[in-house]
Amino acid sequence: MKSKTAMTSNQMTPGIMINLDGKIYRVESAVKVTVAKGTPFIKTKLKDLMTDEVIEKNFAEGQTISEVHLDERSMEFLYIEGKDYLFLDIDNLEKVLVSKSIIGDRVNYIKEGIEVKAKFYGDKIFSIELPQFLEIMVVKTDSSDNIAQLSGATKTAYLETGAKIEVPLFIETGDIVKVDTTSNEYIQRV
User: Fold this and answer.
1) H/E element holding 42?
2) I need a surface site. Which of 39, 142, 154, 158 has the fewest CB within 10 A?
3) Contact indicator for 134, 178 with CB cutoff of 8 Å
4) Helix (H) or strand (E) holding 38
């Protein structure tokens, strides 16, 4: 459901979503600027939820702004259909096509059965959020023969989802590893 609330620029705080010129932005920062001669204004940094582009925008003090409330839904990845990714909305059991551009580099951790949180505004999806930790199988590792057996030495592992991460030398093809999807780092062998 679409949910908008009118507010003033003075009420903007980091984290809220606003509608500006038909685009949805998350407020990254909002600071009141007072100048010696002239009227105070609100200086903001806004992140476009569709493109991840950050812009700076100034608002007059007390200017009316449209706050937007996004719905969060749980979805499970089913399979790739053409260039899009097909998910099942767990709440209403409807299938939802999500473009690769919305998934972005998180595509490296998408595999069948993964449950994600999706942010919607009406019927339009703006972003997906992966679980922080996932258990994924290693399908290939670089040879560790040429790597000195130093403490803390790593090699590159290729995961079943297409991601590439650095792992300790003892990790082999077929191992299941726990990965932090926010930092793209190996956590442990499972």
Assistant:
1) strand 41-48
2) 39
3) yes
4) none
133-175 pLDDT per residue, tens: 999 999 999 876 555 566 678 899 999 999 999 999 899 999 9
Amino acid at residue number 20? L
pLDDT number for residue 106? 85
Please compute, for residue 66, the number of CA atoms within 13 A of its CA located in the half-sphere on the CB side: 12
Q: Which residues pair with 59 in a beta bridge?
A: 42
> What pLDDT, on the 0 to 100 scale, is given for residue 63?
92
What values do phi and psi take at 113, rounded to 5?
Answer: 90, -10
CATH number at 133-189: 2.40.50.140
Give SS3 for 9.
helix
- Quickly tell me which residue has 């925008």 as its tokens: 57
d(CA 103, CA 118): 10
Q: Which amino acid is at 183?
A: S
Length of the chain (residues) = 190
Predicted confidence at residue 143, as pLDDT, reads 77
- CATH architecture label of 71-129: Beta Barrel (2.40)
Assigned CATH for 4-68: 2.30.30.30
Secondary structure class of 37 (helix, strand, coil): coil
| In the block, residue with structure tokens 């999500």 | 98
The neighbouring-strand residues paired with 142 are none
